[in-house]
Every structure is written in C-alpha cells, then in structure tokens.
Amino acid sequence: MANTRLPSAGFSITIRIAVPADATSIGRLTTAAGEAGAIVTALDVVDSDPAHVIVDLTCDTADAGHADQVVDALTALDGVDVRKVSDRTFLLHLGGKIEVTPKVALRTRDELSRAYTPGVARVCMAIAENPADARRLTIKRNTVAVVSDGTAVLGLGNLGPAASLPVMEGKAALFKRFGGVDAWPVVLDTQDTDEIVAIVKAIAPAYGGINLEDIAAPRCFEIEARLREALDIPVFHDDQHGTAICVLAALTNALRVVGKQLADVRVVVSGAGAAGTAIMKLLLRQGVGDIIAYDRQGALHRGLPDLNPAWQWLAENTNKENYSGDLAGAVRGADVFIGVSAPNLLTGEDVAQMAKDSIVFALANPDPEVDPREARKYAAVVATGRSDQPNQINNVLAFPGVFRGMLDAHAEEFTEEMALAAARAIADVVGEEKINPTVIVPSVFDSRVAPAVAAAVRAAAQNPAATPAPAADPGPADLPEIAANASATP
What are the C-alpha distances in Å from 174 to residues 78, 100, 146, 233, 419? Predict the structure, then answer.
C-alpha cells in the first residue's frame, strides 16, 4: 500500500483514535501509518482510562485520496476505533488568515478627536493641498494591494475570485510576516482586461504598490504593462518577477557549486508562460550561454509557425542550434533544466543524459516536472518549489523584501535593476563559504533575507546608475515588450 507520491504538510491530517491500553497499541498505529506511506509528525495522548488510551496521530499525506487510505489502514487494525479525522490545512483557514488591527489607541474622547473628527479634517486638508503627503500621513506609505481575478490560481487554473481569496490572504500574511508590509487581498469579479486596469487605477490612491497575482497569461502581461504606464506606484507581477528573481539567485549559487559560468551553460526552460518568460529574460540579461524554451507547441525554434509575438521573439533570440525535438531531447547534454510547467515531464533517465554536474530546478507544485528523488541520483544540484525538499525556491524570498525596499524608497516603478539587485542579495545571504548541493538558497525563515533584499532594492531605486550592469546586456531595444499574445504556462 506504499504511496509513490511525496507526502507534504499541505495534506496533513490529525486522527483521533481510541486504542486498547496495552504496550503495543501505539506502536501498531505508527507502523500502520508508515506502511501506508504517511509521515508521522506527532503523536499526542489526549485522554485515558484503565481500558483505553485516546491519541491524536498527526501525519503528512500526499493528497486527499492518500489520506483516506491511511485512515482505512488504521481503522483495519484490531481494537482501533477512529473517532475523528481533521484536515489541518482547512482548520488553519477557518475564518481567514488576516485581520485589521488599529495602530493607535482609541480609549478616550481626546484620542478619538485626534484620530477621527474633528482633528482628522486638518490632515485631510493638508493632503488636499499637497497630495504627496498621503505617503507620509496615511497607510499608503506601507500598504500593498494583492490583486487577482482568479484565472490562474496556483497550478489549478481558472477558479474565480472567491476561490483565489485563500491564496491572496496567504500572500498578505507573508508580506506582513517577512517584510513588515501591510497588504490586503483585492479579488476582482471580472476577467476583462480593460475593467481590471480601470479598477486598479481607481483604487490605487490608497496603496503604495500593486502586487498582481494569479492572473493568467497572456492577459497578465498587458495588465501589468498598462498599469505601469498609468500609475506612479510600483506594479509587480509576482508570478513573473518574483519567480525570476528567486531562480536567478538559486542558479547563481548552483553554478558556484558546480564551478560553471552562466555564459558557458545551456539552459532548458519548460514553460514559456508568465514565469518562464520572465526567467528567460532575466537570464538573457545576465548573459546566459543559450536557452531552449519549451512549451505546448514543443521547442520554440525559428520556422515554427503560428507563434505569438512573445514566443516569436524567444524563437529568434534563443535556441542557437534551432533544436526542434521533444523535451527529453532538449535536456540531453544541457547544463541546467528549469521547470515552471507541469508534473512528471521527465524521468531520472532523462536527467542522466544531461551534462556532467547538471542542475535541475523542477518547480511545478505540488508535483515537480521530475521526481526529485530520481533527479538527485544523476544531477549535482536539485531544487524544487516544495517546502519538504532541500533547496526550496520560494517567491517569499523575494517579494516581501522587494516591496519593503520600494516602499522605503518611495519608488514609482519596479525596474530590472531592482530585480538583479534582489537576486544578488538573496544569493549572497547564503555566503560562498556555506553553499553546497543542498544549500543554494537561504531558508525562507532566515531573518537576514528580507532586510538584505530591501536594502539592495532601495539602493537600486535611489541610485540606479550605481547598480552593476549584467554581463552581455543585449540592451533594452533588443528585448521584446511582452505583448498580450504570450502563452500561459502549461
């Protein structure tokens, strides 16, 4: 009954069980759960009497079906009475994950008169006379809108605005926890590009930045471009730029581990949608040797018909040898594989055909493009997006610090110089003396990360000319503006 998929905390359950009060009962529970493929993380005795012991068994499973299998395995044991099964993820989300808390006390008439009427009228008039004072005298100085239409929720597709809300709440909680930024979910019941742009423009006065989230390509590219043009606050699409920053940081240290230079390596990117396109643009700016972009239509190459403008540009400016075969063939001899696409596209045998000291970033969640256990048999460095595997490439390494830095600098836009500075800061937090095949990025809980990223972004915002130029920069005119016809990641 062993499960072949990877259990994770995302499918953690707690099972309340009554067992006979003998020396073997609890051991039989943990053994049965382990044989069913679960990972037992806690076992607590909650009650007992002369005949029975009541225990809470907590374990990670791979999915809802696997959780049912584990419960069935425990129920089948002699003398075991399963009383209740609790899904710990759903329990965490009950009532939502964030709240508004006043920063000022409202205990007396004196305090009320200053925080609200009549005193607040003076502050309103000051802002009316000098609108720039809104950054100083209101929440605008530290508040970000997390905007989504629910069309690309995680890897689940178009679930709509209500179903996207748990993700946006989580994003807001991460902003506060790691960057000290007050963020609020803004989920929109429209998928019309013009309406989304108009709504965000209308609410922008209350915010110091806009974080676009889980909006499907190609619309996400146009929405971001139009909002950047229209607003005087930074607009940042985390699915694109946050991912690209973290991948570049991780790749910087992975290349240090294997002793290769970015200019000498060939990279295969599976997924030429929002994240993949941003990753490839940033790598090209840094002077990568070559990239093969792979998506639903196969390897993007010159001569491939019916390509949208973004894919056409990739076909013309990557894939030097004009490879046109399948993904397994593309990775043969490649130094780096980066997956931001779909699960189970490659096998361990495919990884074995890569270049010596290869690097694999299989970032599809929850199931990567290749089983990391298989990839590690052949690749020198393996990373995933999973929190239960070494080298988790997680956007939380980037976006809290990026926005912290932009807000502190009163930045009016997000720039590529900020992205490059953030990536260098994340990579350098680890320290060259401490990197190894299982440590190429810092922990998301490393307290040094967000301040380092914020400082780097703030410096890039305040003095962009001082930001070191990337190697082999092709120049702004040579890189495409991402048009509305780019593809979604598969």
Answer: 45, 15, 11, 21, 19
The alpha carbon of 167 is separated from its chain's Cα centroid by a whole number of angstroms, namely: 11
* 3-state SS, residue 297: coil
The ranges of the chain with pLDDT < 50 are 1-3, 469-490
Active site includes 323?
no
CA nearest neighbour of 14 among 47, 38, 36: 38
The residue assigned the tokens 């730029």 is 241
Side-chain half-sphere exposure of 61, counting CA atoms within 13 A: 26
Residue 378 annotated to the active site: no
Percentages of the chain per state (helix, strand, coil), in multiples of 5: 45, 20, 40
Which residue shows structure tokens 């953690």? 12
Residues whose CB falls within 8 Å of the CB of residue 69, separated by 6 or more in sequence, listed in order: 1, 3, 36, 37
Instruction: Quote the pLDDT of residue 433.
Output: 86
**273: alpha, beta or left? (left if phi > 0; alpha if psi -120 to 50):** beta
The catalytically annotated residue of 116, 320, 377, 434 is 116
Q: In what order do the strands lie in the sheet with 39-48?
A: 39-48, 52-61, 8-20, 81-87
Q: What is the DSSP letter of 164?
A: H
Residue type, 372: P
Which tokens hold the place of 160?
């709509």
Catalytic residue among 84, 103, 140, 171: 171
Q: What is the pTM of this model?
A: 0.85
Is-contact 310 281, C-beta < 8 A? no
pLDDT score for 7: 87
Name the one residue in this structure whose structure tokens are 């499973």.
61
Q: State residue 483's pLDDT score.
A: 32
